[in-house]
């Protein structure tokens, strides 16, 4: 029995053989100003080695618009390029992770067109948006590019578009590719084999009630992990959490995806949630790290006591993240 267990462990390691990249990353939130090195330096100081840079596009009348004078300066193509250069100057590797903002809190995963004509028009604009940033990624030697974020129905209904898009990207871009699926639909993605990693925006519910204990959160991860592991093994791909994080509230682990202000401020619960993550999934052979949601510019004044947002900046969780990223 002992030798059988050892054999199974070895087979698990071999099934996830490949590169040894560990993503110790943060998701950087661009501002309505030009990013400076002062905004990037604190990221490296918490032992992070990757940064996710998000160029936003906007959906209106079934078309994607971007590089608009109406959007924030830091989200536009040349500002993204400048941010990549700053990150690399600090020794950080980069993922460019395009997001689409629909507005009014509308979730991209629910988006769908009603006719073939609408789909083709929308897909044409989406492809133009993605390829614009793929070009920047190739020119600036960006190491990882996400082809989309949390598209749900679009991914399920139009798989051929995505496979064609991946082929077009590969003609231009020499880095690695990923897609950021939402935590509740990653198993519906049909094109993982065309990509280099399985990407999951990880907002799995970890408790039924507010103010959970660390043991309860660890128990939840131990229930979740085998499901992800089995799926990753079946696709022979490692998993990256393209986003993971928790608000600084008493209810942060009940519905981690919620952006509402439900719950009272609690940096302790946020810290416990991160500790449960690092003490369970972090060192698994099929898991290769991820990007914390999220990190703001002007670090000195970001987050802190009373701030209920996702950022761990200037809170207990920042110390925990720095500790585990440093190991």
Q: What's the structural domain tally?
A: 1
Query: How many β-strand runs?
Result: 11
Radius of gyration: 19 Å
Biggest sheet statistics: 8 strands, parallel, barrel
Structural class: alpha/beta
Helix content: 25-40%
In terms of per-residue confidence, which ranges show pLDDT below 50 for 5 or more consecutive residues? Answer: 2-15
Instruction: State the CATH topology.
Output: TIM Barrel
Number of helices: 9
From N to C, what is the helix and strand string? HEHEEEHEEHEHHEEHEHEH
| Overall spatial form | globular
Secondary-structure arrangement, i.e. CATH architecture: Alpha-Beta Barrel
Distance between the termini: 33 Å
Looking across the biggest beta sheet, what order are the strands in?
1-2-5-7-8-9-10-11
The proportion of residues in beta strands is 15-25%
Which superfamily, in CATH terms, is the homologous superfamily? Answer: Glycosidases
**pLDDT averaged over residues:** 93
- CATH class identity: Alpha Beta
Task: Please explain how this structure is put together.
With 327 residues, this protein is of the alpha/beta class. It has one domain: Glycosidases (TIM Barrel, Alpha-Beta Barrel). The protein is 38% helix and 18% strand. It is built from 9 helices and 11 strands. It has helices at 2-15, 37-45, 77-89, 116-139, 153-157, 159-172, 214-235, 267-278, 316-325; strands at residues 23-29, 50-53, 56-60, 63-65, 93-96, 99-101, 144-149, 176-182, 198-202, 239-244, 287-296. The strands form 2 sheets. The protein has an 8-stranded parallel barrel. Strands 4-3-6 form a 3-stranded mixed beta sheet, covered by helices on one side. Helix 7 (214-235) links the parallel strand 9 and strand 10. Helix 7 packs across helix 8 (267-278) and helix 8 (267-278) packs parallel to helix 9 (316-325). The chain starts with a helix and ends with a helix. The relative contact order is 0.13. The model is unreliable at 2-15 (pLDDT under 50).
């Amino acid at each position: 029995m002992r030798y059988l267990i050892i054999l199974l462990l070895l087979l698990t390691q071999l099934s996830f053989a490949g590169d040894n990249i560990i993503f110790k990353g943060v998701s950087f939130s661009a501002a309505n100003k030009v990013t400076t090195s002062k905004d990037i330096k604190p990221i490296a100081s918490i032992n992070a080695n990757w940064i996710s840079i998000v160029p936003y596009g906007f959906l209106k009348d079934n078309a994607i618009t971007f590089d608009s004078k109406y959007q924030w300066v830091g989200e536009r193509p040349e500002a993204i390029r400048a941010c990549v250069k700053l990150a690399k100057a600090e020794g950080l590797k980069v993922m460019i992770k395009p997001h689409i903002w629909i507005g009014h809190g509308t979730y991209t995963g629910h988006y769908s067109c009603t006719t073939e004509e609408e789909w083709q028009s929308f897909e044409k604009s989406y492809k133009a948006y993605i390829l614009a940033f793929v070009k920047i990624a190739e020119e600036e030697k960006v190491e990882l590019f996400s082809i989309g974020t949390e598209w749900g129905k679009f991914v399920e209904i139009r798989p051929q578009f995505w496979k064609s898009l991946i082929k077009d990207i590969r003609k231009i871009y020499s880095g690695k590719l990923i897609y950021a699926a939402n935590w509740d639909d990653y198993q519906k993605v049909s094109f993982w084999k065309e990509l280099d990693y399985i990407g999951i925006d990880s907002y799995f519910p970890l408790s039924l009630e507010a103010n959970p204990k660390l043991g309860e959160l660890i128990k939840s991860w131990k229930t979740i992990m085998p499901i992800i592991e089995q799926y990753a093994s079946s696709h022979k791909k490692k998993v990256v959490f393209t986003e993971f994080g928790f608000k600084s509230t008493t209810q942060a682990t009940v519905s981690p995806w919620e952006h509402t202000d439900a719950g009272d401020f609690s940096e302790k619960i946020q810290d416990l949630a991160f500790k449960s993550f690092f003490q369970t999934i972090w060192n698994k052979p099929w898991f290769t790290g991820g990007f914390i949601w999220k990190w703001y510019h002007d670090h000195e004044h970001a987050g802190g006591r009373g701030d209920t947002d996702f950022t761990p900046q200037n809170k207990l969780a920042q110390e925990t993240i720095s500790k585990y990223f440093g190991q």
